[in-house]
TrEMBL record:
Family to which the UniProt record says this protein belongs: Belongs to the class-II pyridoxal-phosphate-dependent aminotransferase family. Histidinol-phosphate aminotransferase subfamily.
Signal sequence interval, chain numbering: none
EC assignment: 2.6.1.9
Record organism: Phormidium yuhuli AB48
Annotated gene: hisC
Listed name of the protein: Histidinol-phosphate aminotransferase
Length: 350
């Protein structure tokens, strides 16, 4: 045997997450789109008041406390919700349940979230990447022609920050015989949602996460919303106890505290506007964003140099070393104070 691993695993590249400095390091982290504000005080109170009895027993297999809180907050039925260890797990379940080889492909417009490719490579399922058009026009005809077993649309998209219109998503859902996944990781910072499509189409799933809007990236909680028929296959594939008891309880508290989440999101959106103006004053190109980050082009298009210069000053932003994005930087919106530190470093650099 020449390898311990399946050929697909030998052939793939592992996913490379954004850099995570050690806790306590004096680094301004604007590279992985975390929320600059702390999690809901209600969620933190759950953690402080935890009873050991909760941990002696196995957790609920579907994390029903958390599901109930989601159902209430979003006004959807409980059995239209599947909970995952981060929304990444939901994306993984979708590919594992639906994708296979050349005849059940995974399709998505690029540039977008790189993890779709990694997850498909593990399955393995063949990937078809279709480039976005000018100004991030959705390549609707090509996506329809491809007829993927799973089609992923991140909306708002990363790293571009744009929102795909519900009209385009409806055309896609109506014309696809496979599953259309609308990845709404950044929806808390956007001004529309595709959630109504879940009622209209049985092949549509909307995925959400508590990592961005709810400041709980470390807890690992996400969920998918779809009609029960689409969820049935995913429930078969998931680990029996994929959500731990602590996460389920904290997640329920965070979900019930919509007021706090919305307040933080409003502050981030306000800071996004201000940061965008300040960057434009420095000559950066800054397209509008419906997320908690900006994809910017520096005036001299020397993105890598600026990325390294900021890093040397203890500020991390995201530089993508792949085609089409070499001239751009993705900058997470921080607090006004953090953004000001960034602006001062940039003035110093350019
Ligand atoms: C952050 C992000 C996710 C993953 O979120 P987790 O819930 O932390 O796994 C999914 N999709 C996109 C586009 C993201 O940016």
């Amino acid at each position: 045997m020449s390898s311990y691993f399946r050929p697909a695993v030998d052939a793939m590249e592992g996913y490379i997450p954004g850099e995570q400095p050690k806790p306590g390091t004096r680094i301004l982290k604007l590279n992985t789109n975390e929320n600059p504000y702390p999690p809901s005080p209600e969620a933190m109170a759950v953690l402080r008041n935890l009873d050991g009895e909760l941990l002696r027993r196995y957790p609920h297999p579907y994390a029903n406390t958390f599901r109930e809180a989601i159902a209430q907050a979003l006004e959807i039925p409980l059995d239209w919700i599947i909970v995952g260890n981060g929304s990444d797990e939901i994306l993984n379940l979708l590919i594992r349940a639906c994708g296979e080889g050349d005849h059940r492909q995974v399709v998505y417009p690029t540039p977008t979230y790189v993890l779709y490719k990694t997850l498909a490579a593990i399955q393995p399922a063949t990937v078809l990447e279709i480039p976005y058009g000018e100004n991030y026009q959705l390549p609707l005809d090509a996506l329809l022609n491809a007829q993927g077993a799973v089609t992923f649309i991140a909306s708002p998209n990363s790293p571009s920050g744009h929102l795909v219109s519900n009209d385009d998503l409806r055309r896609l859902a109506a014309g696809l015989s496979g599953v259309l996944v609308i990845d709404e990781a950044y929806i808390d910072f956007a001004n529309d949602t595709a959630l109504p499509l879940v009622r209209e189409f049985e092949n549509v799933m909307v995925t959400r996460t508590l990592s961005k809007g709810y400041s709980l990236a470390g807890l690992r909680l996400g969920f998918g919303i779809a009609q029960p028929k689409l969820l049935s296959g995913l429930f078969k594939v998931k680990d029996s106890y994929n959500i731990d008891a602590i996460a389920a309880l904290m997640g329920a508290a965070a979900m019930a505290d919509q007021t706090y989440k919305n307040q933080c999101a409003e502050r981030v959106k306000h800071s996004r506007q201000h940061l965008s103006q300040e960057l434009q004053k420095l000559g950066f190109k800054v397209p509008p964003s419906q997320t908690n980050f900006l994809l910017v082009t520096p005036p001299r298009e020397n993105a890598e140099e600026i990325y390294l210069g900021l890093k040397a000053r203890g500020i991390l932003v995201r530089y993508f070393n792949h085609s089409g994005l070499e001239k751009q930087l993705r900058i997470t919106v921080g607090t006004d104070e953090q953004n000001q530190t960034l602006i001062e470093a940039l003035i110093d650099l350019i």
